[in-house]
Design brief:
By secondary structure, the protein is of the alpha/beta class. The protein is 35% helix and 14% strand. It is built from 12 helices and 13 strands. The strands form 3 sheets. It has a 7-stranded mixed sheet with strand order 1-9-8-5-4-2-3, with helices on both faces. The protein is globular, with a radius of gyration of 22 Å.
Length: 406
Amino acid sequence: MATMAPEQLAARGGAPLRTRPWPQWPVWDEGDAQAVADVVRSGSWFSGGESRTKAFGDFYARLHQSRYAVPCTNGTHALEIALRAAGVKAGDEVITTPYTFIATASAIVQVNAVPVFADVDPDTLNMDPAAAEAAVTERTRALCVVHIAGCPADMDAFTDLARRKGLLLIEDAAQAHLAEWSGRPVGAIGNAGSFSFQASKNLNSGDGGIVLTDDEETFERAWSLHNCGRVRAGGWYEHRMLSGNYRMTELQAALLLSQAQRLEAQTRRRNENALYLAQQLAEIEGVRPLRRDPRVTQHAYHKFIFRYDPTAFSGLSRSEFLKALQAEGIPCHPGYEPTYRSPAFKIDKETHPFPGRVNYGALHLPAVEQGCGEAVWLDQRMLLAERSEMDDIAAAIRKIQAACRA
């Protein structure tokens, strides 16, 4: 019996498997526009007193089971504030992951501390607790754990490590809105945590951020740091520490309060579609979705990441695979390079306040370097499509594989 020849790939002149658009981001309606218009018409655009900004902070704290929240300008500033408020000081070493947006490490540098990179777990691409423990020295002050792509890191292991070594535990939860570890939302499991509301995030206002903590003293310091060094019970011109203005505006807060009405339903859909997609992709040789720990009771799925093995595609390189998948109508990209390979971290005595402490150019962490060479990212907006559209992703990959093997 004759077999049908594989379809010609769209990248080679064939018809693309998919032509209809994916869901657009952000999702908005007239209610969002009205929320912003109400602020404009009110003339109260500043976040003082019983404001929308305070209402959003209270709401987000409840959502993440945190006692306190400090809304602020963006996720990078939120992480800087969290580090300083929790007690990281100049010269302290902070262990973190190299598989993250550069702001994780740059925030550490901005508070005059020293990022120390620990390798990742190859199955999750989150920081490996054993590698983090091996990096602890007498100068280590904190662990900065990132819940990459919205997948909670091993908070049992990191909480234990922080307790045993007497370290602060800071969570960079920029991508992890509503993510849960063993039933508890991330962000305030450690001493302090930060989130981002930048345009791509699952909850966004174009830009914005928030600091969460359960510790009252950390909250008071964070509040002061975000508001020019003022104190909550003090006068307007009473500044008890040096800091900048990192306040969120009423316009951002109004948009976030409106957008947040969709967050829980969107998160459920992302989880349902991502779990289904992972099952489909696991059946394709050479494609391996990242592992979801059973203790991850909710994943934010800011990204859906899988690892690509070119040997199962007749040696097709990842870059060519990405081009082929994009041509079939499946948006995708390769994601991060190790942070220590960024030109920004070619640090010398002219650009770093602690010369001789680090040599990022000589660093070689094998798990993250291999992961960076194999990862394929799908954006969270794709997971808001119908379940049947997840089949298009798997079908496009199978089409590419069949064409490679023909």
